[in-house]
Amino acid sequence: MIAPRYLFWPLFSLSLLSLLCLLVAITQGSVALSLGQLWQALQGQGSLLNQTLVWELRVPRVLAAFATGGLLAVAGALMQILLRNPLADPYVLGISGGASVAALLAILTGLTGILMSGAAFIGAVLSTVLVFGLAQGIGRVSSMRLLLTGVVIAAGWGACITLMLALAPPQKIPGMLFWLMGDLSYAHTPWLAWLILVPVCFILIPLGRSLNVLARGPLQAAALGVNVKQLERLVFIIASLLTAIAVTTAGSIGFVGLVVPHMLRLVLGNDQRLILPACALAGGTLVTIADTLARTVIAPEQLPVGVITALLGVPTFLYLLHRGRV
């Protein structure tokens, strides 16, 4: 059994880093705020402009960015456990593509809020069923076969997205394109993402031991008394749900679910009781930093946050690949 200190101190350190990044993200932007101005605004004091800037613009956006990063990182870690392949994540497997297609359909039909999230979840589940159903075929599922099937399904969803953009009304195309690159400009309701992320993390922590065994292979897990099919089904559903909520909150943001679990395993090991909550914190921190950069690099203009995560994620992944870590 792992000593409590082993679990506590890494998560405590990541929590402090997360709080620091949240604080910096709220104070920085096209209009910088001092800590005193921020404190006054949080108390409902100071200028009305600062109160509006903090409560109506920055706090919802920063919370949405953090929750989105946490959702994507945890979903990526779960997919890597199931497939026992470090290249697995919701984007590579086409899960986010299915969620994106369904979400764009919702946008075209005028659906918003919970209806859009529900459509994205259906799209993510449909993509998951397609990938695992087609990969199984008449033989046993292998991680490589799943990855190849996921790449093909993702390409198909990409073609559907291109077709939808070609047929969409001209006035909706700019918003759809910006959303596909990752956009937190309109993320004014982050509460759904938090209502999913926090309970899921508490659910996954007790499952850490079973996930540790599952990561070694289904046969070994079954021999040690783990209900492999039930656990895999549960993780599939959770990963689909996390991806769907992340996509509806911020659009398509890549590399978070791929890079964050890798980096944490290099530092913290491969115990899922530690890695999964750490992914929620580190993924949230990464997207918060990326969104802050997106808002400030060419302020008052804004960049898509997906561009920033790609610029950070690609060299990191190539470095890990060069060092033989992937």
TrEMBL record:
<feature type="transmembrane region" description="Helical">
    <location>
        <begin position="58"/>
        <end position="79"/>
    </location>
</feature>
<feature type="transmembrane region" description="Helical">
    <location>
        <begin position="146"/>
        <end position="168"/>
    </location>
</feature>
<dbReference type="InterPro" id="IPR037294">
    <property type="entry name" value="ABC_BtuC-like"/>
</dbReference>
<feature type="transmembrane region" description="Helical">
    <location>
        <begin position="114"/>
        <end position="134"/>
    </location>
</feature>
<protein>
    <submittedName>
        <fullName>ABC-type Fe3+-siderophore transport system, permease component</fullName>
    </submittedName>
</protein>
<keyword id="KW-1133">Transmembrane helix</keyword>
<feature type="transmembrane region" description="Helical">
    <location>
        <begin position="303"/>
        <end position="321"/>
    </location>
</feature>
<dbReference type="InterPro" id="IPR000522">
    <property type="entry name" value="ABC_transptr_permease_BtuC"/>
</dbReference>
<keyword id="KW-0812">Transmembrane</keyword>
<feature type="transmembrane region" description="Helical">
    <location>
        <begin position="188"/>
        <end position="207"/>
    </location>
</feature>
<dbReference type="GO" id="GO:0005886">
    <property type="term" value="C:plasma membrane"/>
</dbReference>
<comment type="similarity">
    <text>Belongs to the binding-protein-dependent transport system permease family. FecCD subfamily.</text>
</comment>
<keyword id="KW-0472">Membrane</keyword>
<dbReference type="GO" id="GO:0022857">
    <property type="term" value="F:transmembrane transporter activity"/>
</dbReference>
<feature type="transmembrane region" description="Helical">
    <location>
        <begin position="91"/>
        <end position="108"/>
    </location>
</feature>
<feature type="transmembrane region" description="Helical">
    <location>
        <begin position="234"/>
        <end position="260"/>
    </location>
</feature>
<keyword id="KW-1003">Cell membrane</keyword>
<dbReference type="Pfam" id="PF01032">
    <property type="entry name" value="FecCD"/>
</dbReference>
<keyword id="KW-0813">Transport</keyword>
